[in-house]
Amino acid sequence: MREIPKIVQELKEIETKGGLGVEFYQDNFSVSKNNEEDHLYSLNTQILTNESQKPKYDSYNFQDLETFLMHCFDFLDLYPSSAIIIDAKGKIKYLNKKFLAWLGFQKCDFVDRMFFSSPFFSSENERYLISNLLNQDKENKYTPIELIFKKADGQKLTGLINVNPLINSQDKVIGFIIVITDITGLKIEEETNKITQFYKSILENKTIWFSVSDLSSNVVLWNKAAEYISGYCQNDVLGHNKVWDWLKLDTQSDRGLVTIKGHTKIDNTIISEDYETVIKRKDGRNRIISWVSKMLFDNYHNPTGTITIGKDITELKKNEEKIKIQNEELSSLNKNLEEKVKDRTNKINELLTQKNDFINQLGHDLKTPLTPLMVLLPIIKRELEKPDKIEIIDVLIRNTSYMKDLITKTIELAKLNSDMIQFSIESVNLSNEIDFVIKNNMFLFEEKHISIVNNVPKDIFVQADVLGLREILINIVTNSVKYSSETGGEISIGAIEQSDMIRVSIRDNGIGMEPEQIMKIFDEFYKADDSRHNLDSSGLGLNIAKRLVEKLKGNIWAESEGLGNGSTFFFTLLKTP
């Protein structure tokens, strides 16, 4: 075997002759030989190309991988890290002694074998990672990666991989040097630290009970939370199974079992349970615990013990019980309230029925004596000649008419409050019905000097009862007439489509309303200006219109910009599809 300094000297000579440049340096490592320390020169695994000088090819010129291996074989065999050399096609050309000793393989196992099919890769994922690394562009930096290797005996080790391409004088990659640093010990130390920290956190946890028992229920681990919840410290419980009897209630067995919430079985053996128990603490107080128990197994799947994890849910259970009692009380109150509301509703309905019956009967009783008065007073008026006598009769006729109108509308309102009225719903031409109402009340408009215009399109049809629709229109229009100016006014009627409804608007330029009046305008017996029209209005017309619109599944409302600015009444009806 040639000495390392001699190899280095030969490489220096190649460099000075203009051949392939080789960067080398003296490492800090040393090997002991005959109780003496000989500093070794190590070859840097990256081969450099000298672009400023063209190489001169001679017996030491590294033009191919075989030449490189021939001159560096002895050196690489003494290299302190595991090293592999593969050609550009991925075939293994060399493995040093360190690598073979590390994984326990023989060199003959890899002669002319493809690198990616080597048995030392632990999985396809490892092959994929190293393949991606080798396929990088040679100009890029090859980032070290960690891979898991499999030894000949199956044991797994972790290595840090550094890849460097071998480039000849023609700037062509002729192979790769792969250097592997064993970091298994470091990874084990890291994992050990993680496990240590994990178990430390378990042991010091003061919220979640964590204990481990062997097959005889002897306690082998008891954390801070177990101490806090049970009242028994580690010295009280470790090494025996008496604590499970101590925790039992006097009236319970099986560790105070309350509820088994679920379990998992394998071959009829329960390996996991989810349950709740009541335990008796060392100080005699009871606590409710939610448990999860899991069986432990060795590497041969033989049971070795049990892990028990618990959480004190006593306060949670108390709160649940409080909530349960409160819900029961609330349910009882709701039930009593529903019964009271139902009873009051029945009484109110009964009173409303009695009221409607009374109004209906009173109306008929009052209409009977009014009928002859309405007939006889005009006759008497024609027979009188003195003006003062005629004026008296006019007062009587006007008051009698008012009483008749009031009684008629009161009876109609009573019927609307009950189920006595049956509507006949049909498709109605809205514009035609408005024309009908205008024509039949023209004398009223002329008398009051009112100009009324129907702007409703002829093609609008609504779902309505004809008589009910006419009553709505008459009540709103006559209301506009009553509250128009003394010198006359204007009324305009329009309609527009809104989705499946028709919105009707009736606008006047009368005295207008304030917000307080708008809020009350549809109330029973309400009059916007009681002093001006005491005998001209019963205060029921708009309320009747509202009841009729609602019976026809519509809405009604009024708007006004204030006194002196007129009012607009809106109502909606279902559009004929």
Kindly summarize this structure in a few lines.
With 577 residues, this protein is an alpha+beta fold.
Largest sheet: 6 strands, antiparallel
Architecture of the largest domain, according to CATH? 2-Layer Sandwich
Helix content: 40-55%
Order of neighbouring strands in the sheet with most strands: 9-8-13-12-11-10
**Overall number of strands:** 20
Instruction: Provide the low-confidence segments as ranges.
Output: 1-61, 252-268, 531-535
Fraction of residues in β-strands: 25-35%
**Can you tell me the CATH superfamily of the largest domain?**
PAS domain
What is the CATH first-level class name of the largest domain? Alpha Beta
Euclidean distance between termini CA atoms: 107 Å
Q: Over all CA atoms, what is the radius of gyration?
A: 53 Å
CATH topology of the largest domain: Beta-Lactamase
Give a structural overview.
The protein is of the alpha+beta class. The protein has four domains: about 5-190, 2-Layer Sandwich (Beta-Lactamase); about 205-310, PAS domain (Beta-Lactamase, 2-Layer Sandwich), CATH 3.30.450; about 320-415; about 420-575, 2-Layer Sandwich (Heat Shock Protein 90), CATH 3.30.565. Helices cover about 40% and strands about 30% of the residues. It contains 15 helices and 20 strands. Strand 1 and strand 2 form a beta hairpin. Helix 9 runs antiparallel to helix 10 (about 385-415), helix 10 (about 385-415) packs parallel to helix 15 and helix 13 packs antiparallel against helix 15. Residues about 1-60, about 250-270 and about 530-535 have low confidence and may be disordered.
